[in-house]
Amino acid sequence: MSGWSWRFERTDGSVVADVPEGAPASFPAQADAESWIGESWPSLLEAGVDAVSLLEDERVVYGPMSLHPPT
């Protein structure tokens, strides 16, 4: 069984060491992870997260994906 999670990153690609408050450690399905990020990205951005990458176990599925609105 796979575990899905988000890696929280800064603009320079470094990983945000402290997982933002309220962020689940993992999700049972990709759709659950994607739904959560769709609802949570504004608060993550406020917490200093610039981008996220979706992981299935340790494998990067996609990302980094910027949380900043397009300009």
Tell how many strands the DSSP assignment holds: 3
Main beta sheet: 3 strands, antiparallel
Average residue pLDDT: 93
Structural class: alpha+beta
Describe this protein with a few key phrases.
single chain, 71 residues, alpha+beta, three-stranded antiparallel β-sheet, 3 strands, 28% strand
Compact description:
The chain has 71 residues and is of the alpha+beta class. The longest helix has 17 residues, at 30-46.
Describe the structure.
The chain is α+β, with helices and mostly antiparallel strands. It has one domain (1-16, 32-71). The chain contains one helix and three strands. It has one helix spanning 30-46; strands at 4-9, 51-56, 59-66. A three-stranded antiparallel beta sheet has the order 1-2-3, with helices on one face. The radius of gyration is 11 Å and the shape is globular.
Helix and strand arrangement:
Layout (H helix, E strand, L loop, with lengths): L3 E6 L20 H17 L4 E6 L2 E8 L5
Antiparallel strand pairs: 1-2, 2-3
